[in-house]
Design a protein that fits this description.
Layout lengths: L7 E5 L1 H31 L4 H20 L7 E5 L1 H7 L8 E7 L7 H12 L8 E7 L4 H24 L6 H5 L9 H18 L14 E5 L16 E6 L10 H16 L4 E6 L3 E2 L4 H9 L8 E5 L3 E2 L13 H12 L11 E4 H4 L10 H8 L3 H7 L10 H10 L23 H11 L3 E4 L7 E3 L5 H19 L16 H12 L4 H7 L2 H7 L13 H21 L4 H30 L16 H8 L9 H28 L2 H17 L1 H8 L9 H23 L1
Parallel strand pairs: 3-4, 3-7, 4-6, 9-12, 10-13
Antiparallel strand pairs: 1-2, 5-6, 7-11, 8-13, 9-11
Helix pairs in contact: 1-2, 1-20, 2-18, 4-5, 5-7, 8-14, 12-13, 16-17, 16-21, 18-21, 19-23, 19-24, 23-24, 23-26
Length: 721
């Protein structure tokens, strides 16, 4: 009998694999030659401190490069066939899905934006009775609850409207924006709800008791399957559940991971769906069929037994053509994650993933596990433990059930349990997605990366330099928290069922913040030596100079090849060079400092939501490809200092080489300074030429000059001693 056609296909990208492996082989030979040259030169003469620092930087870059090749070794591409799934499965046979949406601060994450995300999730092209949407409001704000109630009221019009007319864009804001404010029919109702929430925001009364750190648990269920928008025929509607967990300064709330675990427990009591979709509050459902696409993998009998989650790429609706801040995260979602698809699967990426509920219980929930043992793991709730043995969907949410959910959302509930340790989303790191995904892969679970032609979800990218760099520092601090723990991929992965290449990918992400050392060394030490006529690289006439040239040129060409192969223009290559230097200088450095301070107990972990609100001026800068240097002094000063230092050293050093006739010996360092300044030209422009509000503040420029002068004086004393 002929086998039925598959719901999905995953095929290796052989062309990319051949290019990547060939490059890796040749580049490895060149790096080995460079290391041999450095070590052999050390035997002939005692290396100076600048030379040792340069060599250490080259070693770190070499190790990180080697680890990064695991992402490129076996790239895969996947496709799905939802139409085949629908031929084999009717609506009753599709598994239920719980959607988790987290918000924390109504000022940085406006309730209107959260409403649009909620409505787009409720209107997904999936059986309505199989959908439940849970909103976690960590701020416990009355305005957010009010917005959810208004969203529920409007959904009674919006969901049937989308279903009846097959609407493709199911985010109300995006759908009605095409009509230039000509709100007719359903659009009129959307505008009424928007005006109500805006009036509540401007009134401010609902923010008076807003306290993110101290408020009781509150759970409210919104459901009504008895009426449709016109109140005549029965229409099935998704359920909307508002959850605000208890907050108390005496208890650690574990940031987003803690909020997700509360939703995990509460949803277990109400809908108990076998699959979970996690979304950021600004990550709207763009393609309503994403759930069916994910089920093409989760229902596949060949892979579903050990498939933990299906990860969709994070894409953004507000990216400019220039994308100067690399908001699209091209390297991650178009190169690295497809590369991991050929291994054990991509890392968990915070938003836009369909997770199997069973995977978050790990191996704790087994048929032979007794009731008492389960309570030791999962806490004192008898009802929660009972729900594990049942796939019951509670159509009638009683007051008793609501009281139980509030108990599950209390601060004390997790005391003495394994929540965040062995169950649910894991704590210990600000980067809960990375840590949770790593543990799942260590336990033998697999994942799938699926990048459909139409974006499944669209979020809001950062449009300000300050937000971009601080967000990056938080990510890197979270990765380092794992690196400095007993769960470090360097050692913990050795005991797991994870493949060598998969482990290399995790080790690379865990060590990525160490880029801060070579970027600071190579942006300062060769320049200081250039100023004093001390060569750190071979002469141009020396054959060993070709090794250094080859490594630099080929790495640039490989980066350019990756950019062009993913369909991006050449300017993306240049923009990524620039923002990578900025992130390595600031994000990696601040992330490293914060992680070390937390390790030593000198600083508490802190999670600040990324600001989703942008003013018109900020958007104008971004859309025109202009950097907005209205940033924190701590963020901006190091960048300006590096540029100022390179400008001084290049001007003085180049003049010296012309006078001394040492251009042959100093060319490498001259080129390095020139390259840094070329890549970071927007900083020079912001210091000298721009006159708008986004320019570099004069105070920062003067402070940077003072720091540069101090460094040159201090460095000169060390070199001459």
């Amino acid at each position: 009998m002929e086998a039925p056609p598959p719901y999905n296909l995953c095929n290796p990208n052989k062309k990319s694999a051949i290019i990547n492996r060939s490059y890796a082989l040749l580049h490895s030979i060149a790096i080995t030659s460079l290391i041999f040259y450095r070590l052999s030169s050390f035997f002939h003469s005692t290396p100076s401190l600048p030379l040792l620092l340069a060599f250490t930087s080259e070693l770190i870059l070499s190790v990180l490069w080697l680890l990064s090749q695991a992402f490129l070794w076996r790239p895969f591409t996947c496709q799905t066939f939802p139409e085949r799934l629908l031929q084999d499965k009717n609506d009753d046979e599709l598994p239920a899905i719980d959607v988790f949406i987290c918000t924390a601060d109504p000022e940085k994450e406006p309730p209107l934006e959260v409403m649009n995300t909620v409505l787009s999730a409720m209107a997904m092209d999936y059986p309505a009775e199989k959908l439940s949407v849970y909103v976690s409001d960590d701020g416990g704000c009355g305005l957010t609850l009010y917005a959810m109630k208004e969203a529920w009221e409007f959904s009674r019009y919006w969901v049937p409207f989308c279903t009846r007319f097959g609407i493709k864009t199911r985010c109300p804001k995006l759908y009605f924006s095409r009509f230039d404010d000509e709100f007719l029919g359903q659009g009129y109702e959307a505008e009424k709800e928007k005006i109500k929430v805006q009036e509540a925001e401007s009134n401010g009364k609902m923010l008076e008791e807003f306290n993110t750190k101290n408020h009781p648990a509150h759970v409210e269920v919104m459901q009504d399957e008895s009426h449709n928008a016109n109140g005549t025929n029965q229409v099935k509607m998704p359920r909307l559940v508002y959850v605000s967990r208890e907050k108390n300064p005496s208890y650690h709330h574990h940031f987003k991971a803690g909020a997700l675990n509360v939703l995990f427990r509460v949803s277990n009591m109400i809908s108990n769906s076998p699959y979970i979709l996690v979304l950021d509050c600004d990550m709207r459902c763009n393609d309503p069929t994403s759930a069916k696409q994910a089920m093409c993998f989760h229902i596949d009998p060949k892979i579903n037994s050990n498939l933990a989650f299906v990860q969709f790429p994070q894409k953004f609706h507000n990216l400019s053509k220039m994308d100067i801040y690399d908001g699209q995260l091209r390297s991650t979602f178009l190169v690295k994650w497809p590369g991991m698809d050929g291994l054990q699967g991509p890392m968990l990426s915070g938003s836009g993933f369909y997770m199997k509920r069973k995977a978050l219980y790990r191996d704790i929930v087994q048929e032979d596990t007794d009731f008492t043992q389960l309570k030791q793991y999962l806490g004192p709730s008898n009802e929660l433990v009972k729900s594990l043995k049942s796939a019951k969907y509670n159509t009638d949410v009683t007051s008793r059930l609501l009281e139980e959910t509030r108990f599950l959302a209390s601060c004390k509930y997790e005391e003495g349990t394994q929540w965040g340790k062995q169950v649910g989303f894991l704590y210990m790191s600000l980067l809960e997605d990375y840590f949770t995904g790593f543990n799942l892969h260590c336990e033998g679970w697999k994942s799938i990366f699926y990048n459909p032609s139409s974006p499944a979800f669209l979020g809001t990218a950062t449009t300000k330099l300050n937000d971009t760099l601080l967000q990056g520092s938080r990510w890197n601090c979270g990765a380092l928290q794992v690196t400095f723990s007993r769960f470090s991929p360097l050692i913990y992965g050795l005991k797991s069922r994870m493949s060598l290449l998969q482990r290399m990918c995790y080790v690379y992400l865990s060590l990525q913040p160490f880029y801060f050392f070579p970027i600071w060394c190579l942006a300062t030490i060769p320049q200081l030596c250039l100023l004093h006529g001390i060569p750190l690289y071979p002469k141009v006439s020396n054959s060993w100079f070709m090794v250094f040239s080859y490594i630099f040129i080929m790495s640039q060409l490989k980066h350019l090849e990756e950019v062009l192969s993913t369909g991006d223009p050449i300017r993306t290559w240049w923009n990524e060079q620039r923002i990578w230097m900025m992130k390595a200088s600031i994000s990696y450095t601040i992330g490293m400092l914060n992680a070390v301070l937390k390790l030593l107990g000198l600083k508490e972990a802190n999670f600040v939501p990324t600001n989703k609100v942008a003013d018109d001026e900020q958007i104008t800068f971004y859309q025109n490809g202009l950097f907005n240097f209205q940033a924190s002094t701590v963020v901006l000063t190091p960048l300006i200092t590096l540029v100022t230092l390179n400008m001084i050293c290049l001007a003085a050093g180049a003049t010296r080489t012309i006078v001394d006739g040492s251009f042959n010996a100093m060319f490498g360092q001259i080129f390095l300074s020139f390259y840094v300044l070329m890549v970071q030209y927007p900083l020079i422009d912001g210091m000298i030429f721009r006159k708008d509000k986004g320019r570099v503040p004069t105070s920062v420029t003067l402070l940077s000059l003072a720091i540069s002068a101090s460094f040159l004086c201090f460095g000169s004393l060390i070199i001459k001693s």
